[in-house]
Design brief:
Layout: E1 6-11, E2 16-21, E3 39-43, H1 46-56, E4 61-67, H2 71-83, E5 86-91, E6 98-103, E7 109-113, H3 126-134, E8 136-141, H4 151-157, E9 160-164, H5 173-179, E10 184-188, H6 195-205, E11 210-214, E12 220-224, E13 227-231, H7 246-259, H8 264-278, H9 291-297
Parallel strand pairs: 1-4, 1-8, 2-6, 4-5, 8-9, 9-10, 10-11
Antiparallel strand pairs: 2-3, 6-7, 11-12, 12-13
């Protein structure tokens, strides 16, 4: 075990989501809908759920982000207290980040993000970032503002860095800064015209040791050491009810494997198992796969993945 105070510092991605289960997606226009499953607002955006997934797997996790002094901010702070995750919450005048997630019967989601709840001027608390990153083995950076400005500081810390580009289209320059300055890059293949070409471009122009593109039920692609392999999807342990948080769970389990010294194909297998588990958990419930169940469902010997 490293002498570092934290295994992982999660940077950014704190906020609240309002979850609405709708009869179908896309949702046809109507004057109104009756939502029998209820409408619930809870803490938990990408950084929160990566932190939760890491903590559930036994990693010492700390979360740093800007959070408003408001009701949603109270939900974020309580989320971390409840789950025993350290949180450094810096003031955000615009208010805590929030989104509305529409979830269809098949578990697919449509997220509506409130872009007014962001500090876009690029200011980061340099001393705080340096201190926390320097006390961590690894830093996972969310692409939420203003954390792009922290990337040079993370390099100084000596910690390895990962990021999740989510549904990047492969061209947007804001995401590119994260893609080219991380050791491990996660992204969704959803909006990519040519996922493999984008993955190779990230590896060639950046510093990534591994690039992972997830594609839901089609599995994922792993690019490592110049070799592209396919990571098969894993059968979920129950009915698929919600895809919210599946990518965050994948990233957390992959990083668990990485920090445990596992080969990258095993890390990817861990990610696939955790992502499948997340799809069986309603987004209104904060629950991630634990270490024992992950290791039971993904034995360490599973390292051979088919080439693409």
């Amino acid at each position: 075990m490293s002498a570092a105070e934290h295994d992982v510092l999660v940077l950014g991605g704190a906020g609240v989501d309002t979850i609405v289960y709708v009869p179908r997606l896309p949702l046809p226009y109507a004057d109104s809908y009756m939502i029998g499953s209820g409408i619930e607002t809870r803490a938990g955006q990408t950084g929160d759920f990566v932190a939760l997934g890491l903590s559930a797997l036994g990693l010492r996790t700390h979360h740093l982000d800007m959070v408003g002094d408001d009701g949603p901010g109270d939900l974020v702070r309580e989320f971390h207290r409840k789950h025993g995750i350290g949180l450094t919450a810096l003031p955000l005048q615009a208010g805590t980040k929030r989104a509305v997630n529409l979830v269809g019967p098949d578990g697919r989601r449509l997220s509506l993000y409130d872009s007014t709840r962001a500090d876009a001027d690029g200011r980061v608390p340099e001393a705080t970032v340096r201190g926390l990153a320097g006390a961590s083995r690894h830093v996972h950076v969310s692409i939420t503002q203003p954390w792009a400005s922290a990337l040079p500081l993370l390099r100084e810390s000596g910690a390895t860095v990962s990021t999740d580009l989510h549904n990047w289209d492969g061209t947007d320059g804001y995401h590119e800064a994260f893609a080219f300055d991380a050791d491990i890059v996660f992204l969704s293949a959803t909006a990519l015209a040519d996922p493999e070409a984008t993955m190779h471009r990230i590896a060639e122009h950046g510093r990534a040791r591994a690039v992972v593109a997830t594609a839901g039920a089609e599995g994922a692609r792993l690019l490592a050491d110049g070799e592209l392999t396919h990571v098969p999807a894993v059968e979920p342990p129950g009915p698929v009810v919600d895809s919210n948080g599946a990518g965050d769970a994948f990233a957390a389990a992959f990083l668990f494997g990485l920090l445990s010294g596992e080969p990258l194909p095993v890390c990817a297998r861990y990610g696939a198992v955790a992502g499948a588990f997340a799809c069986t958990v309603p987004a209104t419930r904060a629950e991630c796969i634990g270490r024992d169940e992950l290791l039971r469902r993904a034995p360490r010997g599973v390292a051979d993945l088919p080439a693409v």
